[in-house]
Amino acid sequence: MSTNQDLLKGIETGASLKHVETADKSGPVIEGGVQLKKHDRAGLLGEITTEHKLNHAETVDKSAPVVSDAKVGQNNHAGLFAEVKAKGAKE
């Protein structure tokens, strides 16, 4: 028998599992005496959908790249193309 068939047979037969006790600590820790209040969801949604006046905020935008002492020169593409053309004509 091949190892794949042995693996499939082992999966089909299953395994016996032992019982495990768990302590679920995922819930929030709420101290005693805490009282929950009713929330006015409709009022909140109504306030969100109304128009609000926004105030202007002055900001200093520093997101632009800082390039200091950069020099842009002329490209020599015309000379390069002429050289390629001349070499192509020789061949």
TrEMBL record:
InterPro entries: WH2_dom. It comes from the Eukaryota. Residues 3-20 form the WH2 domain. GO terms for molecular function: actin binding. This is WH2 domain-containing protein. It comes from Planoprotostelium fungivorum. The lineage of its organism: Eukaryota, Amoebozoa, Evosea, Variosea, Cavosteliida.
